[in-house]
Design goal:
about 250 residues; alpha+beta; Proliferating Cell Nuclear Antigen; 2 domains; nine-stranded antiparallel beta sheet; five-stranded antiparallel beta sheet; 18 strands
């Protein structure tokens, strides 16, 4: 059995954030204590892991199961919901379909074969104590600004600053720089710089909701993935975003 009810904002956040990887398919792992999903983009450059605790749902009646869902179709029916509407999800095992109720609307979405949906595990990474805690608004503005400078973004950190920069070294560029006092936390043992594609961080900056998430934790170092962790819904939902570094041969 799978029958849950959630606020529109909760389901919208799940679909919006998973969609930043340009995947239309997701494997929802419904467990006794909440919903989990790990998704990777087709080029294996970026991945996103989420865990939404059962407490984030208005009602939660679940026997553990994996369900493949079309995110585009789920997003389409969610777009019909008002800010105060509740979303009811009811899985029909007989037809392997998810029935989504939005007010008077009843949408049936056929489930996908979960064995055909790729899923990977987050790697174990050691950033040697490096950590930047930044407000959601500053994070979003920094990466939206970096998009103006080109397709690559350079992140740099030292004991007193964190900077997000894009553009040519001697040409046009965009830089957003924060002193330690402007950040929630800045911890670093040695200066570090790493380069990444701006595409997925910019999408994350566009989709993350400052109203649900106050701060994000950023970790990176040279030739390592960018790791961004945050919580939403009062800490009931936990998220991790990973992005492979852009390595160039000089």
């Amino acid at each position: 059995m799978l029958r849950v009810t959630a606020k529109q904002q909760v389901m919208r956040e799940i679909v919006d954030l998973l969609s930043i990887l340009d995947n239309e398919e997701a494997k929802f792992r419904w467990g006794e204590k909440g919903l989990a999903c790990t998704s990777v983009d087709v080029s294996h450059v970026a991945m996103l892991e989420m865990m939404v605790a059962d407490e984030c749902f208005e009602t939660y009646e679940v026997e553990p199961m994996d369900v493949g869902i079309d995110l585009r179709k789920l997003g389409e029916v969610l777009s019909l919901a008002g800010p105060n509407d509740l979303i009811e999800l009811d899985y029909d095992q007989g037809t392997s379909s998810m029935v989504v109720h939005v007010s008077e609307v009843r949408r049936t979405i056929r489930g996908l074969d979960v064995s055909m949906i790729e899923e990977v595990k987050l790697p174990s990474l050691d950033f040697e104590g490096m950590k930047v805690v930044i407000s959601t608004e500053k994070f979003a503005r920094s990466f939206k600004a970096a998009k103006l400078g080109g397709d690559l973004v350079d992140l740099s950190v030292d004991a007193s600053h964190f900077a997000v920069r894009s553009g040519e070294p001697t040409g046009e560029s965009v830089e957003t720089k924060f002193e330690a006092g402007e950040l929630g936390e800045l911890s670093v043992k040695q200066p570090s710089t790493s380069t990444y594609s701006i595409r997925f961080p910019n999408e994350l900056a566009r989709k993350i909701n400052p109203g649900a998430t106050e701060t994000l934790e950023i970790q990176f170092k040279a030739s390592y993935p960018l790791k961004v962790d945050w919580v939403s819904n009062g800490g009931g939902a936990k998220w991790t975003f990973l992005l492979a570094p852009r390595v160039t041969n000089d």
